[in-house]
Amino acid sequence: MNKNFVEELKWRGMLSQIMPGTEELLQKEQVTAYLGTDPTADSLHIGHLCGVMMLRHLQRCGHKPLALVGGATGMIGDPSGKSLERNLLDEETLRHNQECIKKQLARFLDFESDAPNRAELVNNYDWMKDMGFLQFAREVGKHITVNYMMAKESVQQRLNGEARDGLSFTEFTYQLLQGYDFLYLYQHKGCKLQMGGNDQWGNMTTGTELIRRTLGSEAEAYALTCPLITKADGKKFGKTESGNIWLDPKRTSPYKFYQFWLNVSDDDAERYIKIFTSLDKETIDALVEEHRQDPGRRTLQRRLAEEVTVMVHSREDYDAAVEASNILFGKSTKDSLLKLDEQTFLDIFEGVPQFEVSKDKIGLPAVELFTTEAAVFASKGEMRKLVQGGGVSLNKEKLAAFDREITSDDLIDGKYLLVQRGKKNYFLITVK
Questions:
Q1: Known catalytic membership, residue 63
Q2: Nearest to 429 by CA among 381, 359, 325
Q3: Which is the catalytic residue, given 129, 236, 359, 398?
Q4: What are the tens digits of pLDDT across the range 165-220?
Q5: Is 199 among the catalytic positions?
Q6: Is 373 exposed, middle or buried (0-12, 13-18, 19+ CB in 10 A)?
Q7: Of 60, 93, 110, 199, which one is the catalytic site residue?
Q8: Residue 6 class from Cβ within 10 Å (0-12 exposed, 13-18 middle, 19+ buried)?
Q9: Residue 53, class by beta-carbon neighbours within 10 Å (0-12 exposed, 13-18 middle, 19+ buried)?
Q10: Active-site hit among 30, 240, 283, 388
């Protein structure tokens, strides 16, 4: 064992609750631990990242991580932290999602080597699908009392008004299903520790209780949780106006992913760089110090965005995202515009005023197109003045003559014109 896993989580701000005896167990042997992920989509999002990083640190400290995909539980929905039941998946969708998730996890965990602590992916659908209700009632249900289950906070919240429609029986049994996962992995994989977010504590302790009641009091099973990550303003982490920030580049472009981390607040950057990177304490302390000397340089945000983008995507994607960011704020050329894929191009100019013109207007002089057809300039006189003063660019090149004809050769991706008025004002024209 090189590093102490619990100490590692503590200084990173990734430890919330821990059962007595957990730390001692981790110090005396190589421990197999699991963390569950919900396969409702074919990609993880950054809300999953804290759990994934826990598995990564666990493996780096010499222990064995099991990433559990909740195929069976994904079919019924978990009440904790949710006020509504989620929709249920069929098996084909489930298997597809599992494969996609495994590919993403392989960027964080070693599944391939011969190391004794190499990671494994398991799916609870594999051991739940053939279990009948009577068998479940006999083998699992008889060990845990309803009183015990009712006392859980996640159940209490659902019963006491947070959700008007109460709690379905399906959801009520969720903690038994999750408890059975732990028992199964304990018996078949020697797994003694379950990890997860703070909202899972109730389900996790049901698992340790089930193991104890099924196998006797000498069975060692433990649990630890990480805090739920929030933003400094208390809002939920990882959600933006447009929804989740996904790890799949088809759902969230690497540029947008990079921008998310680059734009977090100073307080958040200081917390996130500990949680979402593998940088060591000395490096992070030095970065924090440097950032405090001159917050305007955004040292923490830049390094955080770099580390996470390279880890989730690649060094090339990171470089491309930085170059794309310079298009809006720095000096860049028409070449850098042409290098962008369409999604990144649209992501960069998402917030700028946009116009649509029809294809038959191509061939008009610029002054006609950018005043009458798309109101980039208030009047032809204003545009003429600005062009003469060198203050207008088309696709990052100075517009030399206000009446020059705009042709289809000017279109980016065959359908976009990017007009710039002064340094900061961009306008995007889409040709339909």
A1: no
A2: 359
A3: 236
A4: 678 888 788 899 999 999 999 999 999 999 999 989 999 999 999 999 999 999 99
A5: yes
A6: middle
A7: 199
A8: middle
A9: buried
A10: 240
